[in-house]
Amino acid sequence: MNQNTKKLEISTAELEIIARALETQTKILTMQASAGGHGALARLNEVKRLLATVSSQREAPRPKRAANTGFWGMLRAMGQAI
């Protein structure tokens, strides 16, 4: 694989589309490799490496915190109990 890198500006939506396309390509290449397709395994490994790179660049959704957690949640609960 070519090691020349360039910095691209890609929106989050575009990055999601790319990741989904790579996941689909991975499924196709997995089937081809299991059927004995010539070169499919090598392409599958390349796509998996690229998918790992793209996946690491995606923003992970932040878990939502419950409203009544932590110190401030305890104080809110105590205020409602009085």
Q: How does this model look, in words?
A:
The chain has 82 residues and is an all-alpha fold. The chain has 3 helices and no strands. Helix 1 runs antiparallel to helix 2. The model has no long low-confidence stretch (mean pLDDT 81).
Short description:
The chain has 82 residues and is mainly alpha-helical. It is built from three helices and no strands.
State which percent range the strand residues make up.
Answer: under 5%
Shape: elongated
Q: Which range best describes the helical content: under 10%, 10-25%, 25-40%, 40-55%, 55-70% or over 70%?
A: 55-70%
Strand count, sense and barrel status of the largest sheet are: none
**Low-confidence parts, pLDDT < 50 over ≥5 residues?**
none
**Structural class by SSE content:** mainly alpha
Key traits:
mainly alpha
Map the helices and strands.
Layout: H1 12-34, H2 40-57, H3 70-81
Helix pairs in contact: 1-2
